[in-house]
Amino acid sequence: MQHRQLGAAGPRVSTLGLGCMGMSGMYGPADRAESIATIHAALEAGITLLDTGDFYGMGHNEMLIGEALRGRSRDQALISVKFGAMRSPDGGWIGYDARPEAVKTFLAYSLQRLGVDYIDIYRPARLDPQVPIEETVGAIADMVKAGYVRSIGLSEVGPETIRRAAAIHPICDLQIEYSLLSRGIEESILPTCRELGIGITAYGVLSRGLISGHWQKTALHTGDFRSRSPRFQDGNVEKNLALVEALRSVAEAKGASVAQIAIAWVLAKGDDIVPLIGARRRDRLAEAIGALDVRLTSEDMALIERVVPKGAAAGDRYPAPQMAHLDSERA
């Protein structure tokens, strides 16, 4: 497994990270045993970065990771945790809280669920419009001094917020969606991060499975985020799958799968970018790791961007109400 430096202030991590969200119901039911086996397979393949959120399954995801890591050396995995989203017992989304008191409370519960003494990277999942980012980052910085957190990250915020946060404490990375279908960060967010020495952990590199090469139009479980995603709706999904078929021709010429080409494209966009692979099964994980063997020339990159042009995706990456609250979309 190759490694990349996660920003000037962060740790060295595996070139691919494992995003564990889908193991806790966000994409419909998941198999617990297979999820744990997939985490183990990732660690054995040399993947060191595990990404989660304390609100994935209302704590389920953290407990799952804690179970998977039990009995293993703590330094075998770097754990990245997002916090802040508030959920009700029925799973509904009821707000956001990034006050200093909430930061420290959320952290205490995450440490307990994960069964660890510290978290490697701790980050607010979104910007709380009611709380200055300086207060949120300042509270995490207190936890860094106390030894409960190693590094501070951000998620889905724009250039101004990134600069304000970095003025309070070194930021190791920004976690944000980046793929062939979601290239908005290229305008101002990515240049800002590079100017400040902040890495990128890219989620949604397969656009939630849409450009995996395996997706087929089908009825989605009501608990599956994609049942509400604009890109998966009738009228949009057909257009997006046509882009996938165009990409498939490129993949076949390279002797790779569609997913591997999509991941390799993100990898080739900079050594400061670490794709998060949302595999829930060992076979999908193995396919994703195979992207590390795909070498894309400048001609390959140009061809890929011709068949899937910037801005070609039909539909936004989130429903309109969520898009309106994303600080990153104000860039």
Automatic annotation (TrEMBL):
<dbReference type="InterPro" id="IPR023210">
    <property type="entry name" value="NADP_OxRdtase_dom"/>
</dbReference>
<feature type="domain" description="NADP-dependent oxidoreductase">
    <location>
        <begin position="16"/>
        <end position="307"/>
    </location>
</feature>
<dbReference type="InterPro" id="IPR036812">
    <property type="entry name" value="NAD(P)_OxRdtase_dom_sf"/>
</dbReference>
<dbReference type="Pfam" id="PF00248">
    <property type="entry name" value="Aldo_ket_red"/>
</dbReference>
<protein>
    <submittedName>
        <fullName>Aldo/keto reductase</fullName>
    </submittedName>
</protein>
<keyword id="KW-0560">Oxidoreductase</keyword>
<dbReference type="InterPro" id="IPR050791">
    <property type="entry name" value="Aldo-Keto_reductase"/>
</dbReference>
